[in-house]
């Protein structure tokens, strides 16, 4: 739980420090993007490594090494003297961050009896929710009253406490036969993930049809196919893709991907709406989303315990349906919607999502045998990482294209507007003339303002369309959730 809190706290706070870091280190936006993009990519690449590392070191040693390295990386980031050193230290931090989440899941699953695993997952989810819960608020105050370097130092106290407790509490592993390193599998996997995630994160800016992005996607396709063929024919694969022959595990992995994608897309669009249309600052947006994070953390414990008493897939289905309904309600918001109403629906979504975290974690690992838990957890974590990395690129691309379509439709069909273009144009023209403008100048100003009103209207419709799409995505997650089960794979 301390490990989850430490990592979650750092991830959410760093983004708020970007403006100060850019000023202090004289960095441009392209360089700063690598601080986050590079971290995300390396973290994803390192997640599947726990299968091989586990056979060599054991769960205890992996966790202690990863957590200690992560805290050390945080200290180095705070000591960075320029943007290049900051990027290097963030990449180092990411190397150690990758194994933390999946190996923690495995240790929880192995440490508790079957009738207590849901509760354990719920309590750990509370820790993971605590970071995003207080991170943006704490980060906002740190940016206002302290230096950006404190963003990297705040997780050092909890990190040191977590290392000491882990050293005392975690059991020593049972002796296992070490696996040989599948170098080709590791290389093809890393090539696929790096090129694919680079394409996903940079596609909107560079252009999806640009030679650079097409080259990345081509390399990703070739390396991805090579990776799959290599792992399926290897006696000791770096990543055990044969786990996907387990139908229940595969269905759970699909639900994990959809649930993560839906969550990240909704967060991005809501924050964009708050800042672009309601003129919220990042700190104000964080305060508005705080109740939702609190509800998620507290109810995750409850839903985790419930998953010990009833089949977890029913809780997941219940949560997905409610999440879809809550997101659909966002398709009715306007610039006149009160902050209280927005907060209510965000909190309602948090209530719903709490039923898709701990129960889903338990349902995902339950079909696996003990020897498959480590690799299964790594694959699920990688699944989440790919969904999170792809979410912003996918939803932003849809939003951008839909906005252009909506603007054209509104200009062609004025009946869809909430105002009359001719009446607004005449009113604005008269106002500018009464203020002393010449007729031609007044007409130009009126037309410019009218175009802005049409664009705002198109933007609002686009938000509605996007929320409907994400709501449908959550609803689709119910289909594979129906097929999640508890059968174990037998070889």
Automatic annotation (TrEMBL):
Family matches, as Pfam families: MFS_1 (PF07690)
Keyword line: Cell membrane, Membrane, Transmembrane, Transmembrane helix, Transport
Q: Which GO terms describe its molecular function?
A: transmembrane transporter activity
Query: Gene3D superfamilies, alphabetically?
Result: MFS general substrate transporter like domains, Multidrug resistance protein D
Domain (Major facilitator superfamily (MFS) profile) ranges: 1-489
One GO term of the cellular component aspect?
Answer: plasma membrane
Membrane topology, record value: Multi-pass membrane protein
PROSITE patterns linked:
MFS
Q: Which domain of life is it from?
A: Bacteria
- Which residue ranges traverse the bilayer? 34-55, 62-81, 87-112, 119-138, 150-169, 181-200, 212-232, 244-273, 285-302, 314-336, 466-485
Checking InterPro entries in the record gives: EmrB-like, MFS, MFS_dom, MFS_trans_sf
The record's subcellular location field reads: Cell membrane
Signal sequence segment: none
Q: Which family does it belong to?
A: Belongs to the major facilitator superfamily. EmrB family.
**Name the UniProt record assigns to this protein:** Major facilitator superfamily (MFS) profile domain-containing protein
């Amino acid at each position: 739980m301390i490990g989850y809190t430490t990592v979650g706290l750092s991830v959410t706070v760093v983004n708020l420090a970007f403006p100060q870091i850019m000023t202090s280190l004289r960095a441009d936006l392209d360089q700063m993007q690598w601080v986050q993009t590079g971290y995300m990519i390396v973290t994803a690449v390192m997640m599947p490594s726990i299968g091989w590392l586990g056979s060599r070191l054991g769960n205890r040693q992996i966790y202690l090494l990863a957590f200690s390295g992560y805290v050390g990386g945080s200290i180095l980031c705070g000591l960075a003297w320029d943007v290049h050193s900051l990027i290097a230290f963030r990449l180092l931090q990411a190397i150690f961050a990758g194994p933390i989440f999946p190996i923690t899941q495995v240790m929880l699953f192995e440490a508790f009896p079957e009738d207590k695993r849901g509760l354990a997952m719920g309590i750990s989810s509370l820790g993971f929710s605590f970071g995003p819960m207080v991170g943006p608020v704490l980060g906002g105050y740190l940016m206002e009253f302290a230096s950006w370097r404190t963003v990297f130092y705040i997780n050092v106290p909890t990190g040191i406490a977590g290392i000491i407790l882990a050293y005392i509490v975690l059991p020593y592993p049972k002796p296992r036969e070490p696996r040989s390193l599948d170098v080709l599998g590791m290389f093809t996997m890393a090539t696929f993930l790096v090129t694919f995630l680079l394409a996903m994160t940079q596609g909107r800016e560079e252009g999806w049809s640009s030679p650079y992005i097409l080259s990345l996607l081509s390399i990703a396709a070739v390396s991805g196919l090579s990776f799959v063929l290599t792992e399926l024919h290897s006696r000791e694969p770096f990543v055990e893709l044969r786990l996907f022959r387990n139908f229940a595990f595969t269905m759970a992995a699909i639900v994990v991907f959809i649930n993560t994608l839906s969550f990240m897309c909704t967060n991005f669009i809501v924050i964009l709406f708050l800042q672009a249309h309601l003129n919220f600052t990042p700190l104000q947006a964080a305060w508005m989303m705080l109740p939702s994070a609190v509800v998620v953390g507290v109810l995750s414990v409850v839903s985790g315990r419930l998953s010990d008493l009833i089949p977890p897939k029913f809780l997941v289905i219940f949560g997905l349906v409610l999440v879809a309904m809550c997101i659909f309600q966002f398709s009715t918001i306007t610039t006149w919607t009160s902050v209280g109403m927005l907060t209510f629906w965000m909190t309602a979504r948090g209530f719903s999502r709490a039923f898709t975290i701990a129960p889903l974690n338990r349902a995902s690992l339950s079909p696996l045998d003990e020897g498959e838990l480590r690799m299964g957890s790594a694959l699920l974590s990688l699944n989440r990482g790919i969904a999170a990395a792809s979410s912003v690129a996918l939803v932003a691309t849809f939003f951008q294209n839909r906005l252009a379509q909506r603007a054209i439709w509104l200009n062609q069909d004025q009946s869809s507007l909430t105002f009359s273009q001719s009446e607004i144009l005449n009113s604005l023209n008269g106002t500018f003339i009464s203020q002393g403008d010449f007729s031609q100048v007044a007409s130009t100003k009126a037309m410019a303002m009218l175009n802005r009103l049409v664009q705002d209207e198109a933007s609002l419709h686009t938000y509605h369309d996007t929320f409907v799409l994400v709501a449908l995505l959550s609803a689709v997650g119910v289909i594979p959730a129906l097929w999640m089960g508890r059968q174990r794979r037998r070889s």
